Amino acid sequence: MQDEKLQGNEKIEAAIAALQKEPTQEMLAHVLTVIRRRMKEEGELIVAVEPFSGDSRLKLQAIQTGDGSSWWAVFTSFEEEMKGAEKVMSTFMGSIRQLFEGALKAEGIKGIILNPWNRTLMMDKTMIRIVLGDY
Question: pTM score, two decimals?
Answer without folding.
Answer: 0.86
